Amino acid sequence: MWPMKKTRKGNCGGETFGQRLARFRKTKGLTQGELGAAIGVSIRALSAYERDECEPSIELLAALGNQLGVSVDELLGTLKETSRILINPRWAKRFKQIEFLSGRKQQAIMQVIDMALKSAM
After folding, report:
1. Do 95 and 57 share a structural domain?
2. CA-to-CA separations, 87 to 28, 41, 98, 120, in angstroms, rounded
3. What residue numbers bound the domain in which 96 lies?
4. CA Rg, the chain, in Å?
5. How confident is the model at residue 11 (pLDDT cuts 50, 70, 90)?
6. In contact, 64 and 25? CB cutoff 8 Å
7. Distant-in-sequence, close-in-space partners of 119: CB < 8 Å, separation ≥ 6
8. Which of 5-14, 47-56, 92-101 is predicted most confidently?
9. pTM, whole model, 2 decimals?
10. The domain that contains 53 carries what CATH number?
11. HSE-CB for 87 with a 13 A CA cutoff
12. What is the largest CA-CA distance in the chain?
């Protein structure tokens, strides 16, 4: 089918397609059932993709990317993720709200976050 970039375990920490798919899904906070329902496949099929037992079609790759907020290149492992930060949707919503605040208010929020992180470590 399409050229999956498979990497065996223990090979410098590389991921298989299935491992990347599962990681992106979990980062978005979705279950296999939720993601499967959103793209029209069964939990069984999605589980098989994540276990690298079979490969989704090109059309399904696009649907997976759209639902997970990543490109097909990222799913296939052909594009480095250095420019993308995966973030919990609840945090993303809050960051969007902070973007519209004045610089002074943003700075105050940053100080609070910095203090909270310091005390948590």
Report:
1. no
2. 8, 25, 15, 20
3. 89-120
4. 18
5. very low
6. no
7. none
8. 47-56
9. 0.59
10. 1.10.260.40
11. 11
12. 54
